[in-house]
Design brief:
- With 242 residues, the chain is an all-beta fold.
- Helices cover 0% and strands 44% of the residues.
- It is built from no helices and 16 strands.
- The strands form 4 sheets. Strands 9, 11, 12, 14, 15 and 16 form a 6-stranded mixed β-sheet that branches. Strands 2-7-6-4 form a 4-stranded mixed β-sheet, with no helix packed on it. A 3-stranded mixed β-sheet has the order 1-3-5, with no helix packed on it.
- The N and C termini lie far apart (73 Å).
């Protein structure tokens, strides 16, 4: 998923000081989900050179690190001195793959011709991607075919690893494509005994990550019970006497 944020930077601010990056408890102004791609762009005067746009995304901690800088270092000063600028990356930057947590986003734009020096900073929170699914099954008489249904809230593809009863090696169901809120049907072909047989989801993968329940206690795994009833026995039919 791709999200965009744009800012207009047109106000002249000469000698503007960068705030200290130590406000870890600040409320997030931007909230995205992990694995999203965030596109930041700036609308500014066309005359400003692309090299005069410097972006920074910092970890929100007592010792912030710039996640866009391979060296992981911050600017040595808390203000910018004319002629001492690092090379920028243009008016637009894309960011993806950030781990869940809070970050500080900074954009610095300057123009030597108009003698302007502008800085904006805001807080972005990356939240953990979660798996939302509902599982239910048919209840049938013994010997009849049955199905398990898994309804997702989200966008595919999904790979579902599941077990039935005392099955050790999980079976796999692959749902391809970008279908929104899909429901999959897993046909149960092996004969099941009368009573309840447990169906467990052991692992699900999507375009973001792997959701594993293999190390979770069975009663805490997502799943459902498959109910199999005995065939009804024949009973004599009596006519009611008047």
């Amino acid at each position: 998923m791709t999200k965009k944020i744009a800012h207009n930077i047109t106000t002249a601010i000469l000698g503007f000081f960068l705030v200290l990056l130590t406000v870890a408890n600040a409320s997030a102004q931007i909230v995205i989900e992990e694995c999203d791609t965030m596109t930041f762009s700036v609308d500014s005067r066309p005359s400003i050179d692309d090299l005069n746009f410097v972006w920074g995304i910092y970890t929100a901690s007592n010792q912030p690190k710039d996640v866009l800088d391979p060296a992981g270092t911050l600017d040595p000063a808390l203000y910018f001195v004319d002629g001492m600028y690092a090379s920028g990356v243009g008016r637009t930057v894309k960011v993806t793959g950030l781990a869940p947590g809070k970050y500080y986003v900074r954009i610095h734009v300057w123009d030597e011709v108009s003698c302007t020096d502008n800085i904006e900073m805001y807080v972005m929170e990356v939240i953990e991607s979660t798996l939302d699914m509902e599982i239910f099954a048919d209840s049938v008489c013994i010997g009849e075919p049955t199905n398990v249904y898994i309804r997702f809230t989200g966008v595919g593809p999904y790979d579902v690893y599941y077990t039935i009863g005392d099955q050790v090696t999980p079976s796999v169901y692959n749902l391809n494509g970008k279908e929104v809120d899909p429901e999959i049907t897993i046909s149960i072909t092996q004969p099941l005994p009368v009573g309840e047989t447990k169906f467990w989801v052991m692992k699900v993968t999507d375009d973001c990550k792997v959701y594993s329940f293999e190390e979770v206690a069975p009663e805490e795994r997502p799943g459902t019970g498959i109910l199999i009833y005995p065939k009804p026995t024949k009973q004599p039919i009596y006519l009611k006497e008047e």
